[in-house]
Amino acid sequence: MKFIRSIFRIALLACMIASGAGHAADAPLENGLELARLRFQRSMIEASLAPLKKHLLELSDVEKKRAEARDYAGAIAARNERRAVEDELERLDKELLLLQTREQSLKASALPDRITLPLEQAKLSDVRREGGELTGWSKPGSSATWKLPALPPGGYEIYIKHRCGALDGGLLEVKEAKFHLTSQIDTTSKGPQEKNLGTLKITDGTSTLTLTATTLVKDNLMHLLGLWLVPASK
C-alpha cells in the first residue's frame, strides 16, 4: 500500500495548492479557477490509473507464484494488497465521474444565453451564399455544416431566422454527432421570422452541427438569415 499512498500524497498536495489559489481569487475568476482545479484533479487521477493497473497485474502474478510455491502466507498478503488496489481503482473511477459531472455543470453555467453559428463559417453542399443569406437548397440532401465551438454536452434549443416564400419550404433535419431532430419549414407571410426548431441533445460539443433539406415543396427550402443555439438550462 506504500505505492498507493505515495501517489495520492502528491495528488492531495497538488490539489490543496490549486484550491488555495481559488480562495485567493476575485469573484469573477472563481468559475475559471474552479474549472482549472477540477481539470487538474482529473488529470492527476487519470495519470495514476496506469501505474495502479500495472501494480495490480504484478500483484496477481506474485499471488499466483507464491501459491504455486506453497507460500500461502505470502499469497494471502499479495491477495489482500491486490484487493486493496482493486478497491482504490473502483473509488477513483467513481471520483472521476463526479469530477467530470461537476466540470460539465460549471461549463454549462458559464455558457452565454445565445450561441451564434455564423453563416459565413458554414461548409455548404448544394447551398449557396447570397447577400448574407444561405439559399438555393435545391434538392434533398442540400446541407450546411458548422464546427461547434467546444460546447459542453447537454440539451440546446435550435433557433433559425429565415424567409420562406409561397413555393419554398419542406422538411429540415438538424443533426449532431449522434442525435437529430426534424422541423417543418413553412411560408413566412410577414417577412423574416425566427423559429425554434426544437431541443437537440449535443453529445460531442467539438464535432459538427448540420442542417439538411430532406424534402422540398419545389426547388428551395428557405432563405436562412441566422442560426443560434440556446442552452436548455438557460
UniProtKB/TrEMBL annotation:
Organism classification: Bacteria, Pseudomonadati, Verrucomicrobiota, Verrucomicrobiia, Verrucomicrobiales
Which ranges form a coiled coil? 75-109
Query: What is this protein's name?
Result: Uncharacterized protein
Q: Where is the signal peptide?
A: 1-24
Keyword annotations for this protein, in alphabetical order, are: Coiled coil, Signal
Organism of derivation: Brevifollis gellanilyticus
Give the superkingdom in one word.
Bacteria
